[in-house]
Amino acid sequence: MTNLPGDVRTRLWRDGVLVAEDFPLDDVSEHLSDERALLWVDLLDPGHDQLSALATEFEFERHAVEDAVARGERTKATRYPSHTFLTVYATHLEQEHSSFDDIGSRLRTTRVSAFVLPRGIVTVRRGGQFDIDEVVGRWDEHSDLMRFGTGALLHGLLDVIVDGQFDTVQALDDAIESIEDGLFGDAPMSRATQHRIYRLRKELVQLRRVVLPMREVVSAVMRHRTETGNHAELDGWYTDLYDHVIRATEWTESLRDMVTTLFETNLSLQDARLNTVMKKLTGWAAIIAVPTAVTGWYGMNVPYPGFNEPWGVLVSACVIAGSAGLLYLLFKRRDWL
Prior knowledge:
Blueprint: E1 7-14, E2 17-21, H1 28-32, E3 37-44, H2 48-58, H3 62-69, E4 76-79, E5 84-93, E6 107-117, E7 120-126, H4 132-141, H5 150-181, H6 191-211, H7 214-228, H8 235-298, H9 310-333
Parallel strand pairs: 3-7
Antiparallel strand pairs: 1-2, 1-3, 4-5, 5-6, 6-7
Helix pairs in contact: 2-3, 4-5, 5-6, 5-8, 6-8, 7-8, 8-9
């Protein structure tokens, strides 16, 4: 098999010890035939023909190869006779946009597909936003687990992805808390803050699509390990991974409900502020109506007390001031002004 162009990384462990790295793909078949070997191959944005060539060498299922290169595949785990195929998504949030009026989502996802073989794993990344070096570092950090085979490799990969999803949920939670702090302030919520709430709703919907199915993926992997009698030493690691997935799922769901409540509360507060404004305008209109009525009455061309007399002006002014003052005190006591 000829070497594939593009970004390719390889690693080889033998009896749990790293013995080779970045070797040619031509040597992959030889290493897979070694029962003591554990192999990892990583491909970044391979073309269909490139992946098909590797799939032929490893006897991958044709449908799995199509899923690895197709667009918009959902998070899932599928078992085939010769291997297990996984599709998961790594997530991260970009920095805050310079324009607060921008309601475009900051959430970025990177699809990571994995072909899990009896003595190796092949990962396919679509997009370069996911740092595979973090996965390699996780493997090196727990190098003692490599003697347990592909289960250790798969755990390290899924653990890094779930941790990234946790960080994304944490960032969204912090953003929601910053909005909550100013929600009940005296000043009405600005247009930019309303855009932020809408953007958070959009980001949480997108995040929920990739986080919720992770329960099924990890459950399928754990069930497959139980059926095939894999090393029990990894059971605790996978149990902890499943617990993290459940927490991320529940956290995402609670934030989704929280931002919905935040959006509805903002609308309710806007209605309450509008009612307060209308109440104040109505009160001032009633106060202004009193001098209008008095001056209108004294403006009639008929005799009245104080007609053509200087003290008549004083009487009318006192009536205006007294009536308007009385209404002001009455409205103020009822908190209408």
